[in-house]
Q: What sequence folds into this?
């Protein structure tokens, strides 16, 4: 195959670094962009430049926003005594979609993983501990994935925060809303049973 | 009817450019010369369950290659099947492109995660490699045990992988640092929780399997006495495991691996009638012992109304049995009514199945079903 021009190759190679895109799908994406220059390529380039210029990590919670502190951290109507810990901003957005949480967040930026070389120092754990140590926070809610890395991180955070005296909770796991018991796996049923509460 | 494959289509799988087989359920005996592709067909069936099939092969290794083509030059391959049971037919397919390590699975044309296959197909297999089960190290027997447990309790695989992941993480931390006690505590808590779950699952399957073996005393097969070399399953074992891991940090750091825990548990098998370890039995006794164990597992799974009936894959089993045991094997699989794939070089080995099973000649990458 004749090589594409270096500009196109560079576009493809950068696109292929995005999550969910491999070399093949990056080529397709690049082709789609080049074919639709006016509708996609130019607006995307502008949006990328705009985001690169304006979006920063919030110095309090670590979520990406154009203002610092971010819109959640600077919203005075939100409960500053509640902090919900999420792995990435995606977790924050999911919680916000739910619209039932009125506290604040802390974005860790990943999960502990010795095999991937991600230790406490590579995550925003020190920031969380000092944030909690500052005194205003009463409860830390751990909203981390139910995977080995997620639960290890949750366990680690609970231990690190134990000295501070705040209450550390984690999201319940069990029967999903609208879920049929029949379709649940045994592990989820066992969890749900352990987490039962007065009806 | 019992869950059985009624159609099997292989595309560029191992030695098959294309292979198609219509099946009636019940016993299928595959015969043909060495290297004809009999085991490949069993392996294709084994890819209809989650995991790496009966040869433990990666999805990238099984695509057909022309002579002279090297590893990694395999073609995209597919195994498709129609699974029939009392409720009707389900189309199942799996395969992989050469450049993606992950194999794809489709049920009724919809892409699904491979784990979903365990809702449809359960497999029990016996291969010549397992003949050496009692002579080899504990890891082979542990894998064998975990496969028995997995067929019985599909969730076992998740506990095993969670446990192994937490142990690997802990080992990395112990060997490469940082020495962070809270991080280690967190990993050991995860390992202990998953470890207790997996050990309990092993114990549960083994107890049930032992009861089944005990109930099968009238058959001409040696009976196994099964036990586990360590108890990580009884009350409080999660806490015990957590403590053992915490105590063993310095030792494990020096060894570069975790020296205690259910990943070290061995499956102990005794020849019941001689009350001696299975390894001390004759080769023939050992083969028959494992076969009886596998049949007990199949019989037990077959009674579970909640799960699909198991499909048996018995590779090169018939040739090593004396005529009485071979007849007993054929009677048993006929009585169980389970779909069973058997292989052997010689058609006459399967004489006891003539009229009761379906014969397929395998030669030169082609499948020729016998008439009637």
A:
């Amino acid at each position: 195959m004749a090589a594409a021009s270096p500009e196109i190759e560079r576009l493809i190679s950068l696109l292929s670094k995005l999550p969910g895109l491999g070399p093949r799908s990056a080529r397709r994406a690049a082709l789609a962009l080049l074919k639709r220059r006016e509708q996609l390529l130019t607006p995307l380039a502008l949006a990328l430049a705009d985001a690169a210029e304006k979006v920063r990590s919030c110095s309090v919670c670590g979520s990406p926003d154009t203002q610092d502190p971010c819109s959640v951290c600077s919203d005075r109507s939100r409960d500053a005594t509640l902090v919900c810990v999420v792995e990435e901003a995606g977790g924050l957005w999911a919680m916000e979609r739910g619209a039932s949480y009125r506290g604040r967040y802390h974005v860790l930026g990943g999960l502990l993983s010795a095999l991937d070389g991600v230790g406490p120092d590579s995550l925003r754990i020190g920031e969380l501990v000092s944030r909690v140590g500052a005194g205003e926070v009463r409860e830390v809610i751990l909203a981390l994935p139910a995977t080995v890395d997620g639960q290890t991180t949750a366990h680690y955070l609970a231990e690190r925060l134990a000295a501070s005296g705040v209450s550390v909770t984690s999201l319940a796991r069990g029967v999903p809303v609208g879920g049929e018991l029949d379709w649940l796996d045994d592990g989820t049923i066992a969890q749900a049973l352990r987490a039962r509460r007065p009806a | 009817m019992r869950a059985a494959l009624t159609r099997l289509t292989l595309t560029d799988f191992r030695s098959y450019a294309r292979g198609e087989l219509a099946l009636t359920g019940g016993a299928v005996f595959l015969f043909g010369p060495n290297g004809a592709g009999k085991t490949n067909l069993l392996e294709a069936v084994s890819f209809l369950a989650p995991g790496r099939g009966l040869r433990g092969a990666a999805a990238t290794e099984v695509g057909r290659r022309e002579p002279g083509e090297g590893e990694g030059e395999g073609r995209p391959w597919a195994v498709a099947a129609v699974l029939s049971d009392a409720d009707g037919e389900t189309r199942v397919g799996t395969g992989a492109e050469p450049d993606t390590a992950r194999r794809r699975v489709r049920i009724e044309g919809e892409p699904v995660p491979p784990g979903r296959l365990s809702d449809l197909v359960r497999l029990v297999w016996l291969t010549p490699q397992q003949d050496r089960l009692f002579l080899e190290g504990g890891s082979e027997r542990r894998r064998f045990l975990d496969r028995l447990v997995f067929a019985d309790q599909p969730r076992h695989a998740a506990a095993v992988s969670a446990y192994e992941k937490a142990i690997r993480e802990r080992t990395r931390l112990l060997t490469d640092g940082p020495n962070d006690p809270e991080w280690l505590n967190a990993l050991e808590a995860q390992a202990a929780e998953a470890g207790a779950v997996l050990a309990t699952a092993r114990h549960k399957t083994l107890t049930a399997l032992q009861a089944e073996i005990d109930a099968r005393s009238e058959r001409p097969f040696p009976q196994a006495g099964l036990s586990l070399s360590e108890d990580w399953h009884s009350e409080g074992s999660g806490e015990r495991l957590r403590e053992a891991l915490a105590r063993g940090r310095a030792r494990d750091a020096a060894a570069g691996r975790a020296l205690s825990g259910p990943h070290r548990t061995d499956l102990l098998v005794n020849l019941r009638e001689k009350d001696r370890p299975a390894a001390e039995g004759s080769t023939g006794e050992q083969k028959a012992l494992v076969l009886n164990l596998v049949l007990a597992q199949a019989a037990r799974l077959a009674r579970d109304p909640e799960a699909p009936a198991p499909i048996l894959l018995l590779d090169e089993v018939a040739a090593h049995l004396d005529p009485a045991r071979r007849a007993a094997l054929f009677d048993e699989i006929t009585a169980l009514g389970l779909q069973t794939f058997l292989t052997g070089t010689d058609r006459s080995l399967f004489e006891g199945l003539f009229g009761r099973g379906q014969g397929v000649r395998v030669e030169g990458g082609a499948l020729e079903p016998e008439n009637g």
